[in-house]
Design brief:
5 strands; Rossmann fold; alpha/beta; 21% strand; 6 helices; 160 residues
Protein backbone atom coordinates (compact mmCIF):
# COMPACT_ATOMS: atom_id res chain seq x y z
CA UNK A 1 0.00 0.00 0.00
CA UNK A 2 1.39 3.37 -1.01
CA UNK A 3 0.91 6.19 1.45
CA UNK A 4 0.05 9.39 -0.36
CA UNK A 5 -0.93 12.66 1.28
CA UNK A 6 -2.43 15.82 -0.17
CA UNK A 7 -1.00 19.08 1.15
CA UNK A 8 -3.52 21.74 0.04
CA UNK A 9 -3.11 25.48 0.25
CA UNK A 10 -3.04 28.73 -1.64
CA UNK A 11 0.78 29.02 -1.46
CA UNK A 12 0.56 32.71 -2.43
CA UNK A 13 3.50 32.83 -2.08
CA UNK A 14 5.28 29.62 -1.13
CA UNK A 15 7.27 30.10 2.09
CA UNK A 16 10.10 28.21 3.76
CA UNK A 17 7.50 27.09 6.29
CA UNK A 18 5.58 25.36 3.50
CA UNK A 19 8.79 23.75 2.22
CA UNK A 20 9.66 22.56 5.72
CA UNK A 21 6.29 20.83 5.95
CA UNK A 22 6.75 19.18 2.53
CA UNK A 23 10.18 17.85 3.52
CA UNK A 24 8.82 16.56 6.82
CA UNK A 25 5.87 14.93 5.04
CA UNK A 26 8.33 13.10 2.77
CA UNK A 27 9.74 11.44 5.90
CA UNK A 28 6.27 10.05 6.67
CA UNK A 29 4.69 9.41 3.26
CA UNK A 30 5.71 7.87 -0.04
CA UNK A 31 4.34 10.77 -2.04
CA UNK A 32 3.15 14.32 -1.36
CA UNK A 33 0.69 16.04 -3.67
CA UNK A 34 1.03 19.78 -3.18
CA UNK A 35 -2.43 20.90 -4.28
CA UNK A 36 -2.68 24.60 -5.06
CA UNK A 37 -6.18 25.87 -4.40
CA UNK A 38 -7.69 28.04 -7.10
CA UNK A 39 -10.23 30.48 -5.75
CA UNK A 40 -11.31 32.97 -8.42
CA UNK A 41 -12.92 35.13 -5.71
CA UNK A 42 -9.55 35.73 -4.01
CA UNK A 43 -7.24 38.40 -5.35
CA UNK A 44 -4.04 36.35 -5.58
CA UNK A 45 -0.63 37.99 -5.93
CA UNK A 46 0.57 35.22 -8.23
CA UNK A 47 -1.48 33.35 -10.81
CA UNK A 48 -2.25 29.68 -10.32
CA UNK A 49 0.34 28.70 -12.94
CA UNK A 50 2.97 30.98 -11.36
CA UNK A 51 2.39 29.42 -7.94
CA UNK A 52 2.65 25.89 -9.34
CA UNK A 53 5.86 26.78 -11.21
CA UNK A 54 7.41 28.40 -8.12
CA UNK A 55 6.69 25.28 -6.07
CA UNK A 56 8.19 22.98 -8.74
CA UNK A 57 11.28 25.21 -8.99
CA UNK A 58 11.74 25.17 -5.20
CA UNK A 59 11.62 21.33 -5.16
CA UNK A 60 13.56 20.48 -8.33
CA UNK A 61 15.06 17.13 -7.34
CA UNK A 62 12.16 15.58 -5.50
CA UNK A 63 10.36 12.99 -7.64
CA UNK A 64 8.01 12.09 -4.77
CA UNK A 65 6.40 15.53 -4.87
CA UNK A 66 3.66 16.23 -7.37
CA UNK A 67 2.37 19.76 -7.84
CA UNK A 68 -1.25 19.99 -8.92
CA UNK A 69 -4.17 22.37 -8.53
CA UNK A 70 -7.85 22.14 -7.75
CA UNK A 71 -10.96 24.27 -7.63
CA UNK A 72 -13.95 23.63 -5.45
CA UNK A 73 -14.16 21.26 -2.52
CA UNK A 74 -11.05 19.51 -1.27
CA UNK A 75 -13.08 16.35 -0.64
CA UNK A 76 -14.04 16.20 -4.33
CA UNK A 77 -10.40 16.63 -5.36
CA UNK A 78 -9.28 13.94 -2.90
CA UNK A 79 -11.92 11.54 -4.24
CA UNK A 80 -10.88 12.27 -7.82
CA UNK A 81 -7.24 11.56 -6.92
CA UNK A 82 -8.23 8.51 -4.84
CA UNK A 83 -6.29 9.88 -1.85
CA UNK A 84 -8.00 9.93 1.52
CA UNK A 85 -5.31 11.63 3.59
CA UNK A 86 -4.77 15.39 3.92
CA UNK A 87 -1.94 17.14 5.73
CA UNK A 88 -2.31 20.59 7.24
CA UNK A 89 0.31 22.66 9.03
CA UNK A 90 -0.40 24.31 12.36
CA UNK A 91 1.52 27.41 13.40
CA UNK A 92 -0.37 28.52 16.49
CA UNK A 93 -3.42 27.75 18.57
CA UNK A 94 -5.42 30.13 16.39
CA UNK A 95 -4.72 27.90 13.35
CA UNK A 96 -5.99 24.86 15.20
CA UNK A 97 -9.52 26.17 15.67
CA UNK A 98 -9.98 26.92 11.95
CA UNK A 99 -8.25 23.71 10.83
CA UNK A 100 -10.25 21.63 13.30
CA UNK A 101 -13.50 23.00 11.84
CA UNK A 102 -12.32 22.36 8.28
CA UNK A 103 -11.19 18.81 9.06
CA UNK A 104 -14.51 17.99 10.67
CA UNK A 105 -16.50 19.52 7.81
CA UNK A 106 -14.44 17.49 5.35
CA UNK A 107 -15.12 14.33 7.40
CA UNK A 108 -18.84 15.18 7.36
CA UNK A 109 -18.70 15.44 3.57
CA UNK A 110 -16.62 12.27 3.20
CA UNK A 111 -16.25 9.88 6.16
CA UNK A 112 -13.14 8.33 4.57
CA UNK A 113 -11.11 11.54 4.44
CA UNK A 114 -8.60 11.85 7.29
CA UNK A 115 -6.61 14.95 8.21
CA UNK A 116 -3.14 14.83 9.72
CA UNK A 117 -1.88 17.94 11.50
CA UNK A 118 1.84 18.69 11.52
CA UNK A 119 3.28 21.42 13.69
CA UNK A 120 5.30 24.03 11.85
CA UNK A 121 8.95 24.11 12.89
CA UNK A 122 10.00 26.73 15.42
CA UNK A 123 11.89 28.66 12.74
CA UNK A 124 8.70 29.42 10.81
CA UNK A 125 5.79 29.34 13.26
CA UNK A 126 5.16 33.08 12.79
CA UNK A 127 5.41 33.09 8.99
CA UNK A 128 2.33 33.29 6.80
CA UNK A 129 2.00 33.97 3.09
CA UNK A 130 -0.09 37.03 3.88
CA UNK A 131 2.59 38.46 6.17
CA UNK A 132 5.31 37.75 3.60
CA UNK A 133 3.28 39.53 0.89
CA UNK A 134 2.71 42.54 3.13
CA UNK A 135 6.34 42.88 4.23
CA UNK A 136 7.64 42.37 0.69
CA UNK A 137 5.18 44.94 -0.71
CA UNK A 138 6.54 47.51 1.75
CA UNK A 139 10.16 46.81 0.78
CA UNK A 140 11.02 44.64 3.80
CA UNK A 141 13.55 41.81 3.71
CA UNK A 142 11.87 38.42 3.43
CA UNK A 143 14.95 36.57 2.14
CA UNK A 144 15.01 34.21 5.16
CA UNK A 145 11.31 33.42 4.82
CA UNK A 146 10.99 32.26 1.20
CA UNK A 147 13.06 30.17 -1.22
CA UNK A 148 15.35 32.14 -3.57
CA UNK A 149 13.11 31.73 -6.64
CA UNK A 150 10.13 33.13 -4.74
CA UNK A 151 12.23 36.01 -3.38
CA UNK A 152 13.23 36.96 -6.94
CA UNK A 153 9.60 36.87 -8.08
CA UNK A 154 8.47 38.98 -5.10
CA UNK A 155 11.20 41.55 -5.78
CA UNK A 156 10.18 41.66 -9.43
CA UNK A 157 6.50 42.07 -8.54
CA UNK A 158 7.10 44.83 -5.97
CA UNK A 159 9.95 46.62 -7.73
CA UNK A 160 9.66 50.33 -6.97
Amino acid sequence: MRHIVIYPGSFDPLTNGHLSLVHRALQMFDKVIVAVAHNPKKNALFSLEERKRLIREALPDEPRVEVDSFEGLLVDYARKRDVMLVMRGLRAVSDFEYEFQMANMNRKLDKQLETVFVMTGEDYFYVSSQLVREVASLGGDVSDLVPPNVLAKLQERFRR
